[in-house]
Amino acid sequence: MRWFHWIIFALLLAFPAILVTNFAIELFAVDSALDEGASYDYIVGKADYSQNHPYIPFSQRHCLLITASACSLFAAFFFSIYLIIKHLTARQFERAVDNRTNQIGHPDNRTD
Question: Which candidate among 4, 18, 73, 107 keeps its CA 20 to 30 Å from the CA of 35?
């Protein structure tokens, strides 16, 4: 069952990974366009050598992706907290059962 938890965790981190990848690709494209003396067209996503284009913030162009990434990160955080608590309580339950078995029902502890 642990592999299922890892799959859920990976899926929750997919949106932030896509966001970071898109941001990095665009950052390098803008940088190379400006180094070549061109203007970067943020709507088309290409360098334009003929006219200047206004800067459009990444957050304005990719609002849905940023929102999905933020929600996904929060969900991944709380899912990891859930898994940690589940793991710790399962270990405590196992210890309690082992202690109870050793104290009451273990054949070596009987006085018959």
Answer: 18
pLDDT in tens, 4-56: 888 998 899 998 999 999 999 999 999 999 999 999 999 999 999 999 999 99
For the chain, the domain total comes to: 1
55-83, pLDDT tens digit by residue? Answer: 999 999 999 999 999 999 999 999 999 98
pTM of the model: 0.68
Range of the domain at 17: 2-73
> Concatenated DSSP letters for 27-67?
HHHHHHHHHTTPEEETTTTEEESSS------HHHHSHHHHH
Please give the Cα distance from 3 to 9 (Å, whole number). Answer: 10
8 in any annotated domain = yes
Q: Is 15 exposed, middle or buried (0-12, 13-18, 19+ CB in 10 A)?
A: buried
Question: Is there a domain that residue 26 lies in?
Answer: yes
Q: Examine residue 23 and state whether it is found in any structural domain, yes or no.
A: yes
